[in-house]
Structures are given as C-alpha cells and as structure tokens.
Amino acid sequence: MKRELKHFKIGSSYGGNQDWFPTFMMRIGGCGAETACDSSIYFALHRGLSKIAPENSARLSRDEYVSFAYEMKPFLSPRMTGIDRLDIYIFVINGKNLIFLIFYCILLGTR
User: Fold this and answer.
1) What does pTM read for this prediction?
2) Which of 10, 84, 86, 111 has the most CB atoms around its CB within 10 Å?
C-alpha cells in the first residue's frame, strides 16, 4: 500500500525553496532551516501542533516563509558538516517550552 504525506503550498510551490533566500549562505546551506520550516508547517497543518509554525500557515506567502526560515536559522545555521546529527534538530521554539523534534527520516528528505 502506497502512503504519502499531504502536501502544502507556498504560492504555487510545494513547500519552500532555498532559492528564495536572499543571502548566498542560506541559498547554498539553508537546507536545515528550510526542512525545519516545511516540517513545522506540515505538523501545524496536519498533526495539530499549531504553535510550532506561523498562525497563518495554511496561507503563507513566499516572503512570510522566508521570514520564518530566518527565525529557524539561529538554531540550524549552515555549517561545514551540514545538519548531520539528530540532536541538532531538537530545540526550543520562540522561547516557549515547546520541544520540537524532527525525526531522522525527515533529514533524508531535505532538498
């Protein structure tokens, strides 16, 4: 049986895109922040974890998505080794006591 995750769109794009980031380093090394954004939006829309993504996740514009990615950047900054350990994906979001964990299989799906 084939199982697929539900998609969401930012404008006409399925999820976000590193090419949207205005800085060179985020365009070549922002995959962690981009994956965290897409995962946060997915979990907010389809798993009821609404506090881990922007309130208007179902209608985010490209600019709002980029702003959200730059909120993620301090936690998942581009680095020489990439995001190569699961513990890097565990962090507190927006100063709240919410622990966000992205499972290792999501790491395999980064762009």
Assistant:
1) 0.75
2) 10
- Tokens for 3, please give them: 């199982």
List the domain boundaries for the chain: 9-107
DSSP line for 34-65: HHHHHHHHHHHHHSS-GGGS-TTGGG--HHHH
Give dist(CA 111, CA 17) in Å, integer. Answer: 8
- The strand pairing partners of 9, in sequence order, are 14
Give me the torsion for CA of 60, 8, 39, 30, rounded to 10°.
Answer: -60
Evaluated on CA atoms 69, 83, 25, 109, the torsion sign reads negative
How far is Cα 54 from Cα 94, in angstroms, rounded to an integer? 11
On the question of pLDDT at 96 being above 70, the answer is no
The per-residue pLDDT for range 31-65, each reduced to its tens digit, is: 888 888 898 898 889 888 787 788 899 999 999 99
Paired residues of 100 in beta bridges? 91
How are the residues of the chain apportioned to helix, strand and coil, as percentages rounded to the nearest 5? 45, 5, 50
